[in-house]
Amino acid sequence: MNRICIWLIIACCHWQAVRAQAADTAASSSGTTAAWRFQSINSVGLAVNSNSSGWLLQSVNGIRKQSWFAGIGVGIDQVRFRGIPVFVDLRKYLFSNPRSKYNPFVYADAGVHISVPSESDKNHDRRYHFNNGLYTDAGLGLNLALPRQQALALSLGYSYKSVKFTEVPYNPIAAAPTVNRDFVRYELSRISVKLGWVWGK
Q: Which pTM was predicted?
């Protein structure tokens, strides 16, 4: 499942890159700059807290107008319990000109964390039922302009995800009553650092 998710996100990133470059070529050939511009932000990163750490992979695609950006994001979050965050991403750049060489920004994300636990997340003496939880992320960053309407994006943020599940001791006797059903909720706050590649800036 983990490999499938990674390849799906890589394929999405590649398709969005081709689409963004085609749009940039069309805009350049016409000699105009559109008020609304497609933008794709694809990032890798690391998130840490006092008890655990893990890598992040995200793809955010949306529309930028002047200094504002809004998009939809999806990713893989490996901190403590593996999951797929799906979220809305809002960004405010300091400068309206998308060709500014250095452009600071702030961002805020909110959405749902879809639990996709790995085998290492489970105790094999028990059965589990995972539920989806809240996902948020907010922080600041800097875009460094590159040629051909591209940029590097470095960001530092504070993120949160909740993971909820029901834990039941394994009983090989199907007719036996279920006992000691535990309801568990983890609230994981993390500091995250991400490096992204931006198309259609």
A: 0.75
